[in-house]
Design goal:
The protein has 94 residues and is mostly helical. It has a domain at 20-76. Helix content is 85%, strand content 0%. The chain has three helices and no strands. The chain has helices at residues 9-44, 48-75, 78-93.
Length: 94
């Protein structure tokens, strides 16, 4: 990566916003996935082994969604905080 790379503050904040938006989309899709798997396991299959496997998939998706929640919390407003830290340090350089 070039040492001369320059990124505007707004671009950095916009990139964070896009990542957070993608995470929200993934979470919404996860809800749909769980709903679909639950409805299949509750209504379509009478085989207990298949039903148990489907429920296991839904549980795995719940875990993934919990991880996405944690990721969202970790990323939220980090760009603004990072930029503020850089701006504070820049005061002493100039």
């Amino acid at each position: 990566m070039s040492k001369n790379l320059k990124i505007a503050d707004n671009e950095f904040i916009a990139a964070e916003a896009r990542v957070l938006a993608y995470i929200e989309i993934l979470k919404d899709l996860g809800v749909e996935y769980i709903s679909l798997v639950d409805s299949i396991s509750n209504e379509a299959f009478q085989d207990i082994l298949i039903t148990n496997k489907l429920r296991s998939l839904a549980t795995d998706m719940n875990s993934i969604m919990a991880s996405l929640d944690v990721l969202s919390e970790l990323l939220a407003n980090k760009a603004k905080s990072f930029i503020q830290d850089i701006d504070e340090k820049d005061q002493f350089i100039y």
